[in-house]
Amino acid sequence: MALTGLEIFKMLPKTNCKECGQPTCLAFAMQLAAGKTSLDKCPHASDQAKEALGAASAPPIALVRIGAGEQVLEIGNETVLFRHDKRFEHPPGIAVTVRDDLPPGEIEARVAGINGLSFDRVGQMQCVDLVAVENSSGDPVTFAAAVKTVRGKTNLGLVLMSENTDAMAAALAEVGSAKPLIYAATSENYETMAALAKQYDTALAVKAESLTVLADLVNKVTAIGVKQLVLDTGTREANQVLADQTQLRRQALKRFRPFGYPGITFATDPDPVQRVLDAGVYIAKYAGIVVLDTADPADILPLITIRMNIYTDPQKPIAVEPKVYEIGAVTPQSPVFVTTNFSLTYFCVAGDVEASRVPSYILTVDTDGTSVLTAWAAGKFTPEKIAAALSDSGAAEKVAHRKVIIPGGVAVLSGKLQELSGWEVMVGPRESAGIPAFLKQFWH
């Protein structure tokens, strides 16, 4: 269980030195219990206190890394059950399977398709994270050859899927330096799988047929010395997967250490629509990795989108860079639109400007990633800031006119903005969907 503020206070030096930035040791203890500060801020804490408080303040779900180089996938490190309590830390990895009994040419084509599963969502590139190689053949040589082929064709992280210890050893001999996830240790093979995980310093999935057996197996594996674990409860029915993943998270937050690791789930329903729906449920509640056997972009895109929505920090809006953007083949006669740097606002405006077929400039003002009306109400979208942006962005050098179009919802800014900037201010439509009609009527 996490320590309370008073329990932490008892371990502190009680000097009230204020060097931690808090007025008293009790205030510091309360901040530490709430996760709003760290123990290293206290210069007088004893080694015993550091050891005890360090273990108590560690995230209830361990951070696990899969892969090497720039493509390392980090999962776990979660601290809350509900996103609105704080935020979810690491988005779950999406893995797509490749069978080792496919001909080499088909394996390469499959991997090429997986590499292409990358999407631009509100200015951020989102993609799948892992290639899961299945030992469908049951043969160690075939498995190792397939794994080597896959590794040669992708920089994505790998999941090696085989309960055959000989096959796993052969595959790791080929790609162990890539730090793949070993899947999976079971009650029958855990000693050998754990030894391989220690040898190659890589993460290990632990699989059992029930939560009770899983907890016991995790204790056995950790006793061997493997700490980077991913948990599989063994079930594949969506309702039971949901129940198991929720129970893993709840017990982990209560500091039940055997469940303090991210989980791995498999969307296996034969109906492709239901399969994607199941995967979406697992992303929401609370999988660390979701494995699918589809490389169809139509299946992956909705999962990428829901993952991005759920794992966006609710306290940190997605923003684009504040600057002048060019939409289409702009000329010195092109109109200049002004909006905020909230990603959704910018991409709505950009899409509707593009639909108008009138090449235009869009100047995004830095409003800390908030929308037009929100920024205006908070004093972040003001005539002064817009005038400064017009001056600093170089917009005046890009056009031969001095006309700027502001959102209709903040028409009240027009008079002051015109006075400050020297630009003629045109009040545009309240909604960006009205931009095509507005330009057709008012821009000549």
Radius of gyration: 27 Å
Largest sheet descriptor? 8 strands, parallel
Low-confidence stretches: none
What is the level 1 CATH name of the largest domain? Alpha Beta
Number of helices: 17
Number of domains: 3
Q: Describe the global form.
A: globular
Q: What is the arithmetic mean of pLDDT?
A: 93
Question: What level of helicity do the residues show?
Answer: 40-55%
CATH superfamily of the largest domain: Dihydropteroate synthase-like
Distance between the termini: 68 Å
| SSE-based structural type | alpha/beta
Overall strand count: 17
The neighbouring-strand order within the major sheet is 10-9-8-7-6-3-12-11
Using the coordinates shown, work out and report the CATH topology of the largest domain.
Answer: TIM Barrel
**Second CATH tier, the architecture of the largest domain:** Alpha-Beta Barrel
Could you tell me the strand content as a percent range? 15-25%
Topology:
Elements: H1 5-11, H2 25-33, H3 47-57, E1 63-66, E2 73-76, E3 93-99, H4 104-115, E4 118-121, E5 124-127, E6 130-134, H5 140-153, E7 157-161, H6 165-175, E8 181-185, H7 190-200, E9 204-207, H8 211-224, E10 229-232, H9 238-253, E11 264-266, H10 272-284, E12 289-292, H11 297-310, E13 324-327, E14 336-340, H12 343-356, E15 360-365, H13 372-377, H14 383-392, H15 395-398, E16 403-406, H16 414-421, E17 424-427, H17 435-442
Parallel strand pairs: 3-6, 3-12, 6-7, 7-8, 8-9, 9-10, 11-12, 14-15, 16-17
Antiparallel strand pairs: 1-2, 4-5, 13-15
Helix pairs in contact: 1-2, 4-5, 5-6, 6-7, 7-8, 10-11, 12-17, 14-16
